[in-house]
Design a protein that fits this description.
alpha+beta; three-stranded antiparallel beta sheet
């Protein structure tokens, strides 16, 4: 059986960005970009994957991630906030 070309699906999306990013960039552009790269590689991407999600867009200091369930999106957000706070 063929699937319709415009098949719909449900997804939960999280959006995140860094508070104070512009000020950090103004004070130390190279250092801020390095910290952002490390944050994404060491915390964001692993957390998204751990909760069965995928990052589908990055922009400056933010990203959008898609999850198969709302629970996965919320748990990822809680996990990431706790990791960054620590």
């Amino acid at each position: 059986m063929m699937e319709p070309a415009n098949r719909r699906r449900l997804a939960a999306i999280t959006a995140a960005d860094i508070v104070g990013y512009s000020g950090r960039m103004e004070a130390d552009e190279a250092g801020t970009l390095e910290q952002l790269r490390l944050l994404f590689e060491e915390m964001v991407a692993p957390s998204v994957r751990a909760f069965d999600g995928r990052v589908f867009k990055t922009m400056g200091d933010g990203f959008l991630a898609e999850f198969k369930s709302a629970l996965g999106a919320v748990e990822h957000a809680r996990h990431l906030q706790a990791a960054v706070a620590a």
